[in-house]
Design brief:
Chain lengths: 829, 233
């Protein structure tokens, strides 16, 4: 049987029968392996990069010392774990004092990424991975000015003195802590006990930095999650900073969707090609049966065929996919994360295995048909096997897709949601495709003969035509949305971060320092975004009750009610904010005697606050009450000073305020910061430039990856087109020769082919642009709260691109028809 | 109308020249009806394709409506066909993407004549398919498809009609109807008819029968029907 299978395979190969099937499968596996590997590598490299922000793969924070058995368990598993303690204390030198946030390190730091230590403030530092030696301290640059010390000097730390050993230029964890008021210092853990600085009742936070291989790390983290109590917190690598987290999540969704689409498209191509293969083998099957083969044996023969096709196609696809992914990674190494991680086995295995699964899922129904041909077909050609219920075929295909998705995502819920969305979307897309097709056919009847002929070709297999329109339309929908969302994201970022967006913040500016600061900045040609007041206060009551009475235990644990808040007043809604409930005071009558408050909606939700609730604040020992009159959404990744609570202007005039300002400072002008610190030693400088550059680069990488992957979706679309062209091959040959016999010139045949392809391209392009606009507008309204936006240029551009692309690709597949000798019309084709 | 001179066709088959037709010289006058008969492989279809300019001879001459087909390129021959030739095929060869009406309109439009729709409708009425104008080939029976094909063949008012086994794929009842239709229309419109067939009864309805054997004309004589007719006179 095997030998017969080989012979059949060779014959089919020579006759070109299996080539389409192989082509589709190769494309499928190639796309899956390449997309899988690239996604996986970029993804892991991005994860590595964001781990660098955190200083580890995970951090574990606890208000009490972490049980030593937990740490030992991790260490014995082979993980790297560095313990650290954080607390606030005062550093002094002579008469100068500064409140600092201390991180005392008990081991190597950071575990991921590096720390950059310099000899002088605001200069290039040396990159290293270590901890300060016992007896030494690393300081943030602004502390040097306040304390009036330089590297090599000593500072008082509790009951001991520490030598300033370096200035912190960049350290992990900065991104999430930029608005921590107290400047940061790093010391060796040994010095904490010696300094006698931590007393009973001191507020400490204990942090474990954890890093290691995923296979060891993930189970340990999972175990830790089960052990920890509600006061302890695990932060994963990806959650390092909110801005990064959002970018990574968006990217992952896109990439997952993209590989899914290429799988589905390849599946369609395989199903179409398998359908043709099976029909071409009905005659053989009937003859085999007449010659005495049993159904079981015919089944076996063709299952062997399928397996051979599967092995060869998967092998080819695997090789091409691997080659392609390394080509891509090398080609785009400039914009991809560095260092790039190596290839991992999972996507390779998944890709090639899922190739086989897709082949089985989409081709098996057609192959099983072959053996069911009644032997009588040798006499009566019109006899066909009883068609398998299309529901079974659909269910099988959907089952295969679900299996693949589950394999990739490992989440049944996600699979369920994705499948439901995919099926609904698919049905919608088919409906629109059908509609466009019908209109096109109706309009096409009014065109020239060549156009009508092209329409006739499309009309002949409406199901295939609609599949093709859906496939290409889908590819264009995704591409269009990527392009539009990318430009939307980028322009949103650029509007937030134009070239000279503020990259430095000054806080703790005293009222009397505002004018000198303004003139100092002016002298150095630095323009500010304005100087804003800020009052530090604590929430102490709600609706005339104490917090203990008004809030439950969980709510009281919210950071915003446990520590002092930055309170401000503004006349207008800040830019990155939007009122979601209630009305801003500019819309209500001013000076109505009430003290009005605006509260961030997330905070309000956590504390169960409603409009009309009255909050009591304690500011510098005095109390003030305010009524909540509106809630705001706050865009936390906007790199602007954001406030949980904003007061109506005038209501905080009685309280001492410090001021905050921000400005743009290019790298070469960083020395201005030294002047500021010298003139106003209590001012706190926050440098954002490095973080902003890094976030921007990650965003670029993400969009790059998404755009590149769209190419594969298009390639899978080409596989569908070729499969369908192959299916209609005989009829096309006949039509071409027949037209010649009836007196048509080559020009006419060329025109009719091009008309058909152009129509296909036009329909797909229209679907793409309609679907793209709908999708983008849904995303706009969901994610960006942007009103309906249409993109008229794309209405012209997308169909044009679609027509050219499908025209060129299709022409390459059909141009041989022109040279078909006319006398073949007299032969049985 | 149609004239050949020492028509020879050789093809390469596994490295060897294989002569399919040799030295065929024929003349067909206007409004003649000629049947080309012979066993399978005798060269009937090859001769038909050369006569209609679907293929080029290896040597010899073909003149169709005063045009030297053997000297024309593919597009020029197509233009001659569009102008003067109609076809009926064994397998009907309707274009599956076009309705019955559109199939019949096609040659009229290729010839760039006016009133394509009206004339196609008239012809379909003549072949008894007025109810089926907008049906597609796969919605028609074999006999109906061949009637559409005949309507299409006469649609452009060709001077000469080539028919390749027009009844070959039909049962005898349908075959008889089709041949009646073919000869009736041929007579009405005064078309020259060249048909290739196995079917002696069909061949007998032509005025002349050309018999091929091994690529050579072995007989070229008036049919019994023609003789009978002559005898009647």
């Amino acid at each position: 049987m095997l030998r017969m299978a080989f012979r059949t395979f060779r014959r089919d190969w020579n006759a070109g029968e299996v080539k389409v099937l192989l082509f589709a499968l190769t494309i499928a596996v190639m796309a899956m392996v390449a997309i899988g590997s690239i996604t996986d590598r970029v993804h892991r490299a991005m994860g590595e990069q964001s781990s660098e922000f955190l200083g580890a793969d995970y951090t574990f924070e606890s208000p009490r010392p972490v049980e030593s058995e937990w740490i030992e368990r991790g260490l014995s598993d082979g993980l790297d774990i560095t313990r650290s303690q954080s607390f606030a204390t005062v550093l002094s030198s002579g008469d100068n004092f500064q409140l600092v946030s201390v991180r005392a390190l008990g081991g190597k730091f950071p575990l991921k990424g590096t720390i950059e230590i310099a000899e002088k403030p605001f200069t290039q530092g040396v990159v290293q991975q270590a901890q300060p030696k016992a007896g030494t301290i690393w300081l943030e640059p602004r502390i040097l000015g306040v304390l009036g010390v330089e590297v090599g000097d000593k500072v008082d730390f509790g009951s001991i003195q520490l030598t300033v050993d370096g200035v912190i230029v960049a350290a992990p964890g900065q991104a999430s802590e930029v608005f921590n008021i107290a400047p940061k210092v790093l010391i060796n853990q040994e010095d904490v006990a010696k300094a006698n600085i931590v007393q009973e009742g001191s507020r400490l936070s204990y942090t474990l930095f954890i890093a290691g291989e995923p296979a060891v790390r993930e189970p340990y983290i999972q175990w830790l999650k089960e052990q920890k109590n509600s006061t302890q917190r695990i932060t994963g690598g990806k959650e390092g900073t909110p801005a990064l987290k959002a970018a990574l999540e968006r990217a992952e969704t896109f990439l997952r969707l993209a590989s899914l689409i290429s799988v589905v498209l390849a599946g369609v191509a395989i199903a179409v090609a398998a359908g043709r293969y099976s029909q071409r083998h009905f005659d053989y099957s009937a003859i085999y049966r007449c010659l005495g083969m049993q159904i079981r044996q015919v089944h076996k023969l063709y299952l062997w065929q399928l397996l051979m096709i599967g092995v060869i196609g998967s092998g080819l696809g695997l090789a091409l996919g691997l080659g392609l992914q390394s080509l891509v990674i090398n080609q785009f190494s400039d914009v991809l994360p560095k260092p790039m991680v190596g290839i991992s086995l999972t996507p390779v295995v998944t890709g090639s295995l899922s190739g086989l699964v897709v082949l089985l899922g989409f081709a098996l129904p057609a192959f099983l048909q072959i053996a069911k041909v009644p032997p009588l077909r040798v006499l009566r050609k019109e006899l066909l096997p009883r068609a398998m219920s299309s529901w079974i075929i659909y269910l099988l295909s959907i089952g295969v897709m679900a299996l693949l998705m589950w394999w990739q995502s490992n989440s049944l819920l996600l699979v369920g949601i994705l499948l439901a969305v995919a099926v609904v979307t698919y049905l919608l897309i088919r409906l629109i495709a059908w509609f466009i097709f019908k209109i096109g056919v109706w309009l096409g009847k009014r065109g020239s003969l060549a156009v009508r002929f092209g329409v006739g070709q499309l009309k002949q297999y409406p199901a295939f035509t609609i599949s093709q329109i859906s496939a290409f339309g889908l590819a264009f929908i995704i591409m269009l949305s990527t392009v539009l969302l990318r430009s939307e994201l980028l322009s949103e970022w650029q509007s937030q971060l134009p070239d000279n967006a503020p990259n430095h913040f000054l806080i703790n500016v005293q009222e009397q320092e505002v004018e000198p600061l303004e003139s100092l900045l002016k002298q150095n040609n630095v323009s500010t975004e304005g100087i804003y007041p800020m009052v530090r206060g604590r929430v102490v009551g709600l609706n005339d009750m104490t917090l203990e009475e008004a809030l439950d235990e969980n709510q009281r644990r919210t950071g915003a009610v446990r520590r002092e808040l930055n309170l401000t007043w503004t006349a207008d809604v800040p830019e990155a904010n939007e009122v979601t409930k209630g009305r801003w005071w500019s819309e209500t009558s001013a000076n109505d005697g009430r003290t009005e408050l605006s509260v961030g909606e997330e905070l309000a939700e956590r504390l169960g606050l409603e409009l009309g609730d009255v909050l009591t604040f304690s500011i510098g020992g005095l109390e003030i009450k305010g009524e909540i009159t509106n809630l705001r959404s706050i865009q936390w990744d906007s790199f602007q000073p954001n406030f949980f609570i904003i007061f109506e202007p005038g209501t905080l005039d009685d309280f001492p305020a410090s001021y905050i300002t921000s400005f743009y400072l290019p790298l070469e002008d960083k020395k201005v910061l030294n002047q500021i610190l010298k003139a106003m030693p209590t001012v706190t400088i926050i440098e954002l430039d490095a973080i902003m550059a890094q976030v921007q680069s990650i965003l670029d990488q993400v969009t790059m990856a998404v755009e590149f992957i769209m190419l594969f979706v298009l390639l899978a679309g080409v596989a569908v087109l070729y499969a369908v062209l192959q299916v209609s091959r005989e009829e096309r040959l006949l039509s071409a020769t027949l037209l010649k016999a009836l007196g048509a010139r080559k020009k006419f045949i060329r025109a009719s082919i091009l008309a058909e392809l152009a129509l296909l391209g036009l329909f797909s392009g229209l679907l793409g642009v309609i679907g793209g606009e709908v999708l983008v507008n849904i995303l706009y309204s969901q994610a960006f709260n942007i009103e309906l936006v249409l993109h008229p240029w794309y209405w012209l551009g997308v169909p044009l691109i679609s027509v050219s692309f499908i025209g060129i690709v299709g022409w390459l597949g059909l141009r041989h028809l022109l040279n078909q000798p006319a006398h073949q019309v007299l032969r049985e084709l | 109308m149609l004239r050949t001179k020492e028509l020879t066709k050789t093809v390469n088959s596994q490295g060897q020249g294989l002569t399919i037709l040799s030295d065929v010289s024929l003349t067909v006058n206007e409004q003649d009806t000629v049947a080309i008969v012979g066993v399978s492989g005798s060269g009937k279809s090859t001769l038909l394709s050369l006569l209609a300019g679907l293929d080029l001879p290896t040597s010899g001459e073909v003149h169709l409506a005063q045009e030297p087909l053997h000297q024309l390129d593919e597009d020029q021959r197509a233009a001659v066909r569009a102008q003067h030739v109609g076809f009926v095929f064994q397998s009907f060869h309707l274009l599956p993407g076009l309705s019955a009406l559109e199939n019949v309109m096609l040659p009229i439009e290729l010839k760039e004549q006016n009133r394509a729709k009206e004339r196609a409708t008239e012809l379909l009425e003549k072949v008894g398919l007025i109810e089926r104008l907008h049906h597609y080939p796969n919605q028609l029976s074999g006999g109906e498809q061949q009637r559409v094909a005949i309507a299409r063949a006469f649609a452009s008012e060709p001077k000469i009609l080539f028919a390749d086994e027009p009844t070959g794929n039909l049962d005898s009842e349908n075959g008889d109807k089709i041949s009646d239709l073919l000869f009736d229309l041929n007579k009405q419109l005064g078309t020259t008819l060249v048909l290739v067939t196995h079917d002696n009864r069909l061949a007998e309805r032509c005025q002349r029968i050309v018999r091929l054997e091994g690529g050579k004309v072995v007989a070229d004589e008036a049919s019994n029907a023609a003789l009978d007719k002559t005898a009647e006179l």
